[in-house]
TrEMBL record:
It comes from the Bacteria. Involved in the transposition of the insertion sequence IS5. Pfam families: DDE_Tnp_1 (PF01609), DUF772 (PF05598). GO terms for biological process: DNA transposition. One of its GO terms (molecular function) is transposase activity. This is Transposase domain (DUF772). Residues 138-317 form the Transposase IS4-like domain. Keywords: DNA recombination, DNA-binding, Transposition. The keyword Cell wall biogenesis/degradation does not apply. The keyword Nucleotide-binding does not apply. Belongs to the transposase 11 family. Residues 24-108 form the Transposase InsH N-terminal domain.
């Protein structure tokens, strides 16, 4: 596979490159060692038809920008065509063509099919840890799950099913904050984040999978403590944390059982635990408000998983940049 020749700076590029308005994403860009990313992506192509394809690192950067600014594929194509800030970040000169929306969609699909989005997520987290921005050993794990509506509902029984229907999602009913039962057809994001709100592990499932089923697989194994709401409370999980070597401090919320209400002490303890556990709820809030994760944009669990991990990468990069600025980290 040959790559399209891009990034050859023209006279016009050199005249405008120094303007601070198009340098706003430079710090974010420089958090990543792109050479290691290029090695991981070396076999991913944006073209299925044999012609020259856009360089895989350019395409990956496009997906990150798309998630950062919550843009659809057509909107991302337009933004690349007219925005110097975007061109600078991804490495396109003024005279370079931009990938069309179908190419962007196809590359997103390829990342999932080739199983590369998870290694990319882990690789970038490792880079942030090597910069001492993410603290790994002994950190706290805060675990929770959130429901996301599918792009399309399942076709009604007896109706014609075509490729606009998402048959991998599932229905789930849950009480909202007002106590009203709401039924959603969709998926569920399961997250493990630390106290600084860095996302450490991600799982995605159909919405009808209970939160607790992903508990042990979300653990990193090197955390010092775990916080989670009462949906995760079980004797099996208590035993798992106690028997882990070394033991993991258990801060899962106590829950009331039939004929066994919470004591006043348990209520106070749960309130204290919530002060830490609220971190993961804020992460979900950012995902849905800023990264378009209130409703899936793609069909199928694999595409949803890719989108969730892209949101996690962007969230971690923004969090890292905020900490660097706050504490003056090199």
């Amino acid at each position: 596979m040959t790559w399209k020749q891009t990034g050859q700076l023209s006279l016009a590029d050199s005249l405008i490159n120094a303007h601070k308005a198009i340098e706003e994403l430079d710090e974010l860009h420089d958090l990543i060692n792109w050479q290691t990313i290029e090695h991981t992506l070396r076999h991913v192509h944006s073209s299925d038809r044999g012609e020259s394809a856009f360089h895989p690192v350019i395409m990956f950067k496009i997906l990150l920008l798309q998630k950062l600014y919550n843009l659809s594929d057509p909107a991302m194509e337009k933004q690349l065509a007219r925005d110097l800030l975007f061109r600078r970040f991804v490495g396109l000169s003024l005279t370079d063509n931009v990938p069309d929306h179908s190419t962007i969609w196809r590359y997103h699909k390829h990342l999932g099919e080739l199983g590369l989005i998870e290694p990319l997520f882990n690789q970038i987290n490792k880079q942030l840890a090597e910069q001492n921005i993410i603290i790994k050993a002994g950190s706290v794990s805060i675990i929770d799950a959130s429901i996301v509506e599918a792009k399309n509902k399942r076709a009604k029984k007896g109706k014609h099913t075509d490729n606009t229907q998402d048959n991998e999602a599932a229905y789930v009913s849950k009480k909202d904050s007002t106590g009203k039962v709401k039924t959603t057809y969709g998926y569920k994001i399961h997250l493990n984040c630390d106290e600084d709100s860095f996302v450490k592990k991600v799982q995605t499932t159909p919405a009808n999978v209970h939160d607790s089923q992903c508990f042990t697989t979300l653990l990193t194994g090197d955390e010092s403590a775990v916080y989670a709401d009462s949906a995760y409370k079980s004797q099996a999980h208590d035993d798992y944390l106690a028997e882990h070597e070394p033991p993991i401090n258990n801060h899962i919320h106590d829950r009331a059982w039939r004929n066994t209400p919470l004591t006043e002490q348990q209520k106070r303890t749960n309130t204290q635990k919530s002060q830490t556990r609220n971190t993961v709820e804020r992460v979900f809030g950012h995902f849905k408000l800023h990264y378009g994760m209130s409703k899936a944009r793609h069909l199928g669990l694999m595409q949803f998983h890719t989108s969730t991990l892209l949101a996690s990468i962007v969230h971690n990069l923004k969090t890292a940049l905020g900490l660097k600025r706050k504490y003056g980290l090199p």
